[in-house]
Amino acid sequence: MEPIRLISSKTVVLPYTDIDTDQIIPARFLTTTTKAGLGQHAFSNWRYQADGSLNPDFILNQGTAQGCQILIAGNNFGCGSSREHAPWALLDFGFKAVISTEIADIFRSNSLKNGLLPIVIDAENHAWLMSNPGAGLTIDLQNSTLSLPNGKLVTFNIEGFARYCLLNGVDELGFLMNQLDTITQFEQARA
Description:
Layout: E1 6-14, H1 21-24, H2 44-47, E2 70-73, H3 85-93, E3 97-100, H4 105-114, E4 117-120, H5 123-130, E5 136-140, E6 145-147, E7 153-155, H6 160-168, H7 172-178, H8 180-190
Parallel strand pairs: 1-2, 2-3, 3-4
Antiparallel strand pairs: 1-5, 5-6, 6-7
């Protein structure tokens, strides 16, 4: 997992509410246990037409979305099943952060454990982002702030341990492995 400190990118807006994990990554792509290549299937039912060609009307297929690392989504993003493949697909597609007014708890947890930053902000600033696709934003994870193009700073909450792991590019297992010397000393002292 790559450390996250600052994310500076233009945004792409998906203006739908209740985007569930099956819309993010359809169930037919869940047979893999690896993250590699899942990005090509992200939002597959919307990105591709029946003949397999790209749907030119879908925002992620348009030139303005290319290279965007910040997804602005409608309310209740990531609802539905608990599939970990959903954040894997978004990361593999190139997103580093998702911003909404509400992010489903299990999706949020899976995202944090896999290096995708889920950010919940207030309705007023969210409405501004939804109506200004392509806005250039800077996310400062250390300070839990989002800098809007007009200079406004928006704060967001993120649990301390999750922030530590994201800032240092470690998952929970990596964190424990970094404590191996301390754990070994403790075990030897108790033996």
